Structures are given as structure tokens and as C-alpha cells.
């Protein structure tokens, strides 16, 4: 709701400003009379156009106003009701701004069997023949119009690298801090191609919680190929027995 001014302060549109009763009567056509509160002021919309505001007393609409927009013709004192509406004030509880489904969807909201909306303008992707950077995907002949229509752009690669490196499969996590060695020295590390090769690989150890996932070279876990579980320490050193009953003494018998 725009800034309200008292009726007494209106000088240019006194005819419209003083038509408070007419505005209240018009509201009765769309809402019960007991839902219309006190007159709170007017809003000067334009020349010969003015809106009256009344407190809304409907349950759940605290801070809202009934709005009645009036106008008059030039050199006429006849007031016409143009529009009736319910408008939120500065303290009103309103719904959040609408965000289209395709824009509010998060990766965790979908499973692998649900189709995602097509994004014609995706800054993470470029046409397969447009990417000429040093890190461009190596395209085969069949991809030039017959295979992938788009490939990762430099922005798309940068976002993916940041996301992977800052995840639980990067270096900053309890698993890496407890590990004896990093993935860069693990035999189960399968390196990636392109610029990702210098930072990431795919874990191929079925006993690792990261099996089949992208991990950074400085990540680590307890399933490293060259580590071993600590040997259990003895509580004491076992001494030789005083009586060894496992020995067998052969005695010749007299026959």
C-alpha cells in the first residue's frame, strides 16, 4: 500500500477525498460491513484519481487494507468508483514472491527417474563446436551435430570443480583428517580427463564410502590401498610355560 495521507491534508482533490461514505458503501458489495474498519487515509494516484483505505478486520488479514479507487471527470463533482481491492500494508503478512518451478528446484529435490526442465539458456553449457578453450572437451567427429548438442562451458567446469572440492569428498572433512595418506597415492584412484585430472579422480574401491564417486586428490579415507589396520597391542609378554605338557616322551617297554 502506498503512503497514506489524512483527508484533511488533501487540497487538490477535495471532492474525491471527502467521498468516504460512498467508498465504504461500495465495499459492502464485496465484504460484510463488520469486516470494514476505520478509514485510514487516502492515496493520490493521479490527477482526479484517488484511493481510500480502510482497515481490514477479516481474521488472518492483520495489516491489510480495503482499497476503493475513485475518479471524476474534468470539471465534474460526480464521484465514480473504479476499483475495489484488498491491499497489504507495510506490516502485512504476504506470501513470498513467486518463483517458477524450474528455478526453485534444487538437486536434492529430484531422483534419477524424474525428468528435469530443459534450460535453453544455461550458462554452464555451450554448443559443442563453440568451446575453443584449452580445457575444451575433445569432440569426436560424430559429436559435431550428431552427438552431444552442448558441452560444459568454462563456467560450468568451474562450478563443478568448486562444488566437488567443497563437498565431503574434498580435503576438509573428518575422513581426510583421520587418513594416513591421500587419494593421490592410492591404487584405487582412477584419474579423470582434461583439467580435472590435476585435481580429481574417481574412487574404485568397493570397501570405500566414496566408491564410484568423484574425490579430490587430497581427499583421504581408511580404505587407502597402502594402509593397514593397526595391530592390536599385547597386554603382556607371554613367557615360556613352566610345565610343557605338549612334549611327548617315548619310553621303551620291556617285553
How would you portray this structure in words?
13% of the residues lie in helices and 20% in strands. The protein has 255 residues and is of the alpha+beta class. The strands form three sheets. It has a four-stranded antiparallel sheet with strand order 1-2-3-4, with helices on one face. It has a three-stranded antiparallel sheet with strand order 7-8-9, with no helix packed on it. A hairpin with an 8-residue loop joins β3 and β4 (80-88). Mean pLDDT is 83; it is low at 139-143.
Concise summary:
This protein is an alpha+beta fold.
Overall 3D form? elongated
What is the helix tally?
A: 5
How many β-strands, per DSSP? Answer: 9
Low-confidence stretches: 139-143
The SSE string, one letter per element, is HHEEEEHEEHHEEE
Return the structural class: alpha+beta
Helix content: 10-25%
Beta-strand content:
15-25%
The side-by-side strand order for the widest beta sheet comes to: 1-2-3-4
Gap between N and C termini, in Å? 125 Å
Please give the largest β-sheet: 4 strands, antiparallel
Computed over alpha carbons, the radius of gyration is: 39 Å
Overall pLDDT, averaged?
Answer: 83
Q: How would you describe this structure in keywords?
A:
255 residues; alpha+beta; 4-stranded antiparallel β-sheet
